[in-house]
Amino acid sequence: MIEKFIAIYVFIDDIMIEIGHKEPVNRNSSDSELIAVALIAAKYFHGNIDHAISFVKSTNLLPCMLSKSRFNRRIHSIFELIIDLFLNTADIIKRLNISSEYIIDSFPVATCENIRICRSKLIQGKQYRGYKPSMRKYFYGFTVQVITTVDGIPVEFAMIPGCYHDIDGMKNMFFDLPEHSIVYGDSAYTDYYNEQVCSEAADIKLMIARKSNSKMPHEPWQNFLISDSRKRIETTFSQISSMLPKRIHAVTIDGFLMKVILFIFVFTINEKFL
What we know:
By secondary structure, the chain is an alpha/beta fold. It contains nine helices and six strands, in the order H-H-H-H-H-E-E-E-E-H-E-H-E-H-H. It has two domains: 2-77, no CATH class; 97-245. Strands 1, 2, 3, 4, 5 and 6 form a six-stranded mixed β-sheet that branches. Helix 5 (79-96) packs parallel to helix 9. It starts with a helix and ends with a helix.
């Protein structure tokens, strides 16, 4: 775990240098160190910052690491920086992705158990009540829309309230992909108009699984490609979900979303670069 922490820190710090990130020189703990600790917390401690801080202190990796309260204030203040780091990492992955093939799908992240919905303080409203047909599961929280490479490495994501349809989620994606890219998706993303817009405006082909009564059916080989590619992204979601705690503790919505992003980010770094 020590070697993994060092590798994550070096990776983050290199990107920080690349994007020209500046911060006060008199700080005892740099932004790179804080983000590395947050990522280690997501990777090995189900997001528990206390345990991650104890780890870096006890191993003398960062003996002067901030207290939990100061850590949380600092990490929340650099929320946008964390997103920028993910986007820069995603750009590297897209440049390395010779095939230019991607997959889009979604997975649910609950803020609380269904039985506790009426007592939820983090979020309130019917828009957060969702259902995931593939999992036959009701949940209360957010749906995370993700675009990955065909190897299952996330390069883009968006989070929307649980009741929104996958098509709505897809419309919140930037689709910042190379020209001539192909994006595979299941039938939940069926929207012929959107497929046409992506093709004409961004030169991106959406290859979405067709229902049996579709007016624009695919050839059998196309159906096979779509079905086969989706197996990898389902594995990705399973691996990310295995890192999540039973309940993500957060006081604010931004805090909740940031923790979800950290889980996705550390999975991406670990699978592609470490």
